[in-house]
Specification:
CATH class of the largest domain: Mainly Beta
Number of helices: 13
Mean pLDDT: 90
CATH superfamily of the largest domain: Kelch-type beta propeller
Radius of gyration: 27 Å
Helix content: 10-25%
Keywords: Kelch repeat, Repeat
Protein name: Kelch-like protein 23
Number of domains: 3
Organism: Channa argus (Northern snakehead)
Oligomer: single chain
Distance between the termini: 45 Å
Shape: flat
Domain BTB: 42-109
Strand order of the largest sheet: 1-28-27-26-25
Structural class: alpha+beta
Strand content: 25-35%
Largest sheet: 5 strands, antiparallel
CATH topology of the largest domain: Neuraminidase
CATH architecture of the largest domain: 6 Propeller
């Protein structure tokens, strides 16, 4: 079995409640919950620490290559009715045997690591995945470095990726932790070279390198290699001045600065390309009363906390349109427009953030309003909504830079309007919404891009419409009446029990640098100009602004990522 890394799951104030799989079943399948599978006849006995487990060979072999080789391989055990399993803990083995029979895995912070390692040893991949998702939900600033090392050691790629992303997006706090000093040179270099490193200036990168190298004199040989990853043009004069002024000759960092002066990095020379580019994520918010001549556009930079106005959308009497981000542009599609009577439109307006101007885009194939739209890779998708004749399930896509215009793709499984949408792992998800009967639809519809195919992957335990959704570290978060996390791979819904969210509804939601922002709370028919910050990795759920400059109601809230 794998040797456990120094990983501790510390209690924190963010409260999570994982709902059972039964809550995810649609109403039409409710009768199936009362049906029991036929008993599997035991034909073998597994012996662990003196306790016997009566199992069915074929049943276990279907779940695990380990048991497939044990029972149907060429070893001596394949001919035995009683086989002793060594190297596993009885308590964890008992839990996994129960899981193999019922598909319900009982996990808590005290047992999850042991059960994961036992599942890894027995090659019970589904149980292993459930354990990893549990650990992903437990990720926190206090354990992400240890979890990253542990996941890498055990080969849990998704858990490693999620933990690494927490480190990258919270680097300013992580770099001061004691565990940071125990990282390898390769890990430090990997983090500093990442485009996802969330730092406003490279002052922090240089400071982290000095801190890590000076901790151990044997690391001085790595200093010049690591310093190549610092962008000199992103160092502030104030930081350099204070560093040199306050540094004493006895300071271990003084020797490193002297080394830097003697061996000037080649990548710092003028005209040399850098090995790391810095990505800046900015929130764009669009809103205002529809009966005004223009609707306002503002952008918010989370690292500086500053708002700035942009060129407004020049459209009066346009509402119920959809807003999405693709590349460095904001797309406004469709909507409901009034001249004398209200009618759906096929208009597309594009705001180029770099040029700070609005352009007309190619018209949609079908006029629609109250629909979803989202950008994924280099493609913009428009899904569902309503036409003047009623709901439609049609989906259109626009390839960025293409002259072909909009083209139809496979329609959704269920036509909905006023739904929420987000993109995860090259798939588009549409959550809930209003169906053709005017009722809240509970399904989570998924569009697999490479297969051009829709399916329903789960059912929300709290079906509603006018929800907002976003993605964070491979999980889907849905807000509106309840704050929910959905893990697609294991079909697990988790309720985030945060008082600041409660039963609130919001007009917009987006993710920036590992933190979720919820914009403009809605109560009845009134919208408020506030903004909430939700960060499960630092137990933060608070109102960061009670008077955002963008007028309400908010029509759209998206993140634009620009590489600098």
């Amino acid at each position: 079995m794998a040797c456990r890394a120094d990983t501790e799951l510390k209690p924190h104030s963010f409260r999570l409640t994982v709902l059972s799989e039964g809550t995810n079943k649609p109403e039409e399948d409710e009768s199936a919950l009362h049906m029991e599978d036929p008993d599997t006849i035991p034909d073998a006995i597994l012996l662990v620490e003196g306790e016997s487990f009566y199992v069915n060979r074929q049943h276990l072999a279907l779940q695990s290559p380990y048991f497939r080789a044990l029972f149907f391989g060429c070893g001596l055990e394949s001919n035995k009715k009683k086989v002793e399993i060594k190297g596993v803990v009885l308590q964890h083995f008992r839990t996994l045997m129960e899981y193999s029979r019922t598909s319900n895995l009982a996990l808590n912070r005290e047992t999850v690591l042991g059960i994961l390692e036992t599942a890894d040893f027995l090659q019970l991949e589904r149980a292993r995945l459930v354990c990893c998702k549990f650990l992903e939900r437990e990720l926190h600033l206090s354990n992400c470095l240890g979890m990253m090392a542990y996941a890498w050691q055990l080969g849990c790629i998704q858990l490693y990726t999620a933990a690494r992303q927490v480190v990258l997006t919270h680097f300013s706090a992580i770099s001061t932790e004691e565990d940071f000093l125990s990282l390898s040179k390769e890990t430090i270099a990997d983090l500093l070279a990442s485009n996802d490193l969330a730092i406003s200036k490279d002052d922090l990168a240089l400071e982290a390198i000095l801190h890590w190298v000076s901790f151990d004199p044997t690391r001085e040989a790595h200093f010049l290699e690591l310093i190549e990853l610092v962008r000199p043009e992103s160092l502030s004069l104030q930081f350099i001045t204070e560093l040199l002024t306050r540094m004493k000759s006895s300071d271990p960092r003084a020797k490193l600065i002297f080394m830097l002066n003697e061996h000037f990095p080649a990548s710092w020379s003028v005209g040399r390309s850098m090995r790391r580019t810095r990505a800046r994520e900015t929130i764009f918010v669009l809103g205002g009363p529809h009966n005004q001549e223009e609707q306002a556009v503002y952008y918010f930079h989370p690292l500086s906390g500053r708002w700035q106005s942009c060129a407004p959308l020049q459209r009066k009497n346009l509402t119920q349109y959809s807003v999405a981000a693709l590349g460095d542009s904001v797309f406004v599609t469709g909507g409901y427009f009034r001249e004398v009577l209200w009618f759906s439109v096929d208009w597309v307006r594009i705001y180029e953030c770099g040029n700070q101007r609005w352009l007309d885009g190619p018209a949609l194939q079908k006029s629609r309003h109250s629909h979803c739209s989202i950008g994924l890779d280099s493609v913009l998708y428009v899904m569902g909504g309503s036409m003047d004749e009623g709901l439609l399930a049609d989906v259109e896509r626009l390839v960025l830079g293409s002259e072909e215009g909009w083209e139809g793709v496979s329609p959704m499984v269920r036509a909905v309007e006023r739904a929420a949408t987000a993109a995860l792992s090259s798939c588009v998800y549409v959550a809930c919404g209003l169906d053709e009967n005017g009722e809240a639809y509970s399904g989570i519809q998924r569009y697999v891009v490479k297969e051009d195919q829709w399916d329903v992957v789960s059912y929300s335990p709290f079906p509603r419409y006018d929800l907002v959704a976003t993605e964070l570290n491979g999980a889907l978060y849905v807000f509106g009446g309840q704050a929910l996390r959905f893990d697609v791979d294991t079909d697990e819904w988790t309720v985030l029990k945060e008082e600041c969210l409660g039963t609130k509804f919001f007009c917009g939601c987006t993710t920036v640098s590992g933190q979720m922002y919820l914009v403009s709370e809605r109560k009845s028919n009134k919208a408020f100009p506030n903004m909430m910050l939700l960060d499960p990795y630092i137990d933060a759920c608070l109102e960061v602004d009670d008077a955002i400059p963008c007028p309400v109601p908010i029509r759209g809230c998206v993140t634009i990522r620009m590489v600098m």
